[in-house]
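Put briefly, the fold is written as integer tokens. The lines below illustrate.
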Amino acid sequence: MQAIERVVIDNSWITILLVCLFACVFLLRGLSAVRLKGSVSSLFNESFIDSEIEENSSFFNPFKNIVFIFSIVVLSLLAYKIYLYYNSTAEEGFFTFLKVLGVVFSYLTFKRLLEFLFSVVFKIDKKLDFFLVSKSVYLYSVSFFLLIAIVLVEYSKLNTLFLVYFSVLLFSIRFIFHAVINKKLVFSELFYFILYLCAFEIAPLFILFRLLF
């Protein structure tokens, strides 16, 4: 009788990663429980965005940088699971996740730097403060909800398809809410808003994920 090779996939690194993410949440709570609560509920709390603009606009603010890194890791884990779900030939494991993390980190970091530099160079930072801050804060809020969904998928009978539908729903809500609260700016500068979507949101994401998939 021919022996059958048994392949055991160790996903313990996902558990360790999730523990680190929850540790980030506790760290954020230690830095500012009020800002953490506001970040989680910002989709339904427009006043928090105004307070964030007044709080600290520094690029090196600790709370902002930690929640930014937190969001990158959560979105990378989401992309990793969706990548495996739709690509049956993909190799599962930590090194594949690192590849996805590199793509997401490069995309979000490069976009964040460009937005910051352009707003300062063209002296439109005050005009676009609310637009940029609301976009970032909404992304952080979505990331907190996605973390819960990832935990449910990882440790329950829910499959990755639930994660796909849930993430599409969350990002759709984020886009709609963001467009609504910035409707004056969007409609007054509709051409530039469309140009911004193509140049900063769609094109870089499409190129990077084409390289990944």
Observations:
- The CA atoms of residues 18 and 161 lie 20 Å apart.
- Residues 1-8 have pLDDT under 50 and may be disordered.
- The two ends are 39 Å apart (CA to CA).
- The longest helix spans residues 125-155.
